[in-house]
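2024-03-11 09:14:02 INFO worker-7 job=invfold-0412 stage=load source=structure_tokens
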């Protein structure tokens, strides 16, 4: 319901949450090696494909430059997807496949200021003139998402599913 509220507030075509994990379960003390989409909400008839199943256990090495930027700045702002073709080629490929024109991702932090994941907003229309304001709104919304991710059962769920026991 929080993602739907965010989508409606910023008028995004897709809003999603990706978490960082080590491939078995999320662990704050260990380096993160993978990312998975754990939730997404779409606008009606936006033409964006569902990614929650496809984007499970993606290697962070695919996104090295953008993850470094996220850790340094707390966000990755993409006013125009065409401008990232050489800088973030994998993200460019993913976004351009669904005709995304603008996007932004902001870090979701836990209570110890460790990055748990990323909140991503995607737009099929040019939002470059509004992207800074959208980014500020997304940052505020991460305060609502952080406790959900930090204390949810996705850590246990991920652990049992990947161990072959679940």
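2024-03-11 09:14:09 INFO worker-7 stage=emit residues=166
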């Amino acid at each position: 319901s929080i993602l739907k509220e965010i989508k409606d507030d910023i008028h995004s075509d897709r809003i999603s949450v990706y978490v960082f994990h080590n491939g078995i379960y999320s662990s704050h003390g260990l380096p993160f090696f993978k990312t998975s989409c754990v939730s997404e909400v779409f606008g009606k008839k936006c033409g964006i494909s569902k990614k929650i199943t496809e984007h499970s256990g993606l290697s962070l090495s695919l996104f090295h430059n953008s993850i470094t930027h996220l850790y340094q700045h707390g966000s990755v702002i993409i006013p125009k997807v065409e401008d990232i073709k050489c800088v973030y080629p994998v993200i460019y490929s993913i976004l351009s496949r669904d005709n995304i024109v603008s996007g932004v991702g902001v870090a979701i932090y836990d209570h110890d200021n460790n990055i748990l994941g990323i909140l991503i907003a995607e737009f099929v229309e040019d939002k470059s003139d509004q992207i800074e304001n959208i980014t500020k709104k997304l940052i505020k919304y991460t305060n609502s998402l952080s406790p959900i991710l930090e204390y949810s059962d996705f850590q246990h769920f991920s652990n049992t599913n990947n161990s072959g026991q679940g």
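2024-03-11 09:14:09 INFO worker-7 stage=report msg="Confidence is low (pLDDT under 50) at residues 154-166."
2024-03-11 09:14:10 INFO worker-7 job finished
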